[in-house]
Write a structure and sequence with these properties.
47% of the residues lie in helices and 20% in strands. It has 386 residues and is an alpha+beta fold. The strands form 3 sheets. A 7-stranded antiparallel beta sheet has the order 2-6-7-1-5-4-3. A 5-stranded mixed beta sheet has the order 10-9-8-11-12. The longest helix has 36 residues. The two termini are 39 Å apart.
């Protein structure tokens, strides 16, 4: 299984200038290649086409052989992603403004966009915690980096493949790809149902509740500050807004990491699997009031599900997704399903048998029960041919 490990580079003043010049130059070259590719091939330029068209020009610009190849591959990969996005309808249907805009001009790269390195132009010294990296000013040696002991251990044992040089908020990072072995998946004794929501980010069938109240309060405070900054309408205000948005995103990701780590640890300790609801496309299916739209759009349920899934794969914990329909309105004891079973957001009370309890816990129990039956069908042997 592939994961990424981020380390912070600590270059001196001379090294910083070289890294900055390199990043700006390769992204300017990527813009030139992208424009030429769009003119000649539209959105369909291949690596072979761009290599014959642009490789010599990139070498003349001073790029090394591997750097030129990575620039070409990055441009092709970007157009491949754009074509897939258009086919999936994420930019709207035929004639949509966003779709026409994306198809009418070449892709452009920011001057500080990440650049890819492989082992031919980047080498690691884990004992000294330094790297040797190619730049437009020659090879920079003994560039120091800092990371945690766990990250350093993963780099030493599992690093494999390419790394990205990233500049963010004036700081330099290397994002390395690591190939981490997966644990053998065990046969679950039972399941933990996980109900994801906004007020409660995750509630399990065991009754463990991971409240989203603090995150919601944090986001409301950030929204007020954002409104104050937006009112200034200056260039520095826009830069500050981007910085605060990244900080808010990191904060939400940190909370999701903690929740997913706890859920997976409990499942692994008790030899149970994890059952999640299939929530793809919920923003299109569910409508909310105008004052609730920003709250719903910033709901990090997909990220939480992805974190649970990849941590479970590393630990060998089975994960299954089940149909989410009526999990918060169905009684897990008698099966009666009705809106009236949910008199309020936090309360469940069955109108038939009288079962009562926290609504999110009941939903988690229903998710668990559906996983029990779904797992049987998933692992059912194929019928013998007639």
């Amino acid at each position: 299984m592939k994961i990424v490990v981020q380390v912070k580079l600590i270059p001196d003043a001379t090294q910083t200038v070289a890294l900055e010049r390199t990043l700006h130059t390769v992204n300017q070259c990527a813009n030139q290649v992208s424009a030429a590719s769009f003119t000649a091939y539209g959105l369909n330029g291949s690596i072979k086409d761009l290599r014959s068209m642009a490789y010599g020009q990139l070498k003349a610009e001073g790029l090394g052989a591997q750097a030129a190849q990575h620039v070409i591959k990055r441009v092709v990969d970007t157009y491949t992603t754009l074509r897939a996005t258009i086919r999936a309808g994420n930019l709207g249907g035929q004639g949509a403004k966003r779709r026409r805009k994306a198809m009418s001009r070449p892709v452009t790269f920011r001057l500080d966009a990440a650049h890819t390195y492989d082992d031919r132009c980047l080498s690691w010294n884990y004992d000294a915690q330094t790297v040797s990296i190619w730049t437009m000013d020659g090879r920079l040696k003994n560039v120091r980096f800092a990371c945690s002991e766990a990250a350093l251990k993963q780099l030493t044992e599992c690093r494999k493949g390419e790394s990205d040089l990233v500049r963010r908020d004036g700081k330099w990072f290397l994002v390395a790809t690591c190939e981490v072995p997966e644990a053998e998946r065990y046969e679950p004794r039972d399941w933990i149902g996980v109900d994801r929501g906004i007020s409660n980010l995750a509630t399990t069938s065991d009754g463990d509740d991971h409240s989203g109240r603090r995150l919601d309060r944090y986001r409301r405070r950030q929204a007020r500050k954002k409104a104050e900054i937006q009112a200034k309408k200056t260039r520095s205000a826009k830069q500050l807004l981007k910085k605060r948005a990244r900080r808010e995103s990191r904060h939400a990701a940190h909370i999701n990491h903690k929740i997913s780590k706890t859920v997976v640890a409990v499942a692994q300790r008790t030899e149970r699997g994890i059952a999640l609801e299939q929530l793809q496309g919920i923003r299109e299916r569910v409508t909310v009031r105008r004052d609730q739209r920003a709250r719903q759009s910033s709901w990090p349920f997909h990220q939480l599900g992805a974190f649970i899934a990849y941590k479970a794969r590393r630990a060998g914990v089975p994960v299954i997704e089940v149909d989410p329909a009526y999990t918060s309105q169905r009684c897990p004891r008698c099966g009666h399903t009705a809106k009236a079973n949910r008199p309020s957001r936090d309360t469940f009370r069955c109108r038939r048998c009288g079962l009562a309890g926290p609504a999110d816990v009941v939903a988690g129990v229903n998710v668990r029960d559906r996983a029990r039956s779904a797992w049987v069908f998933v692992n059912m042997p194929k019928p013998a041919p007639a």
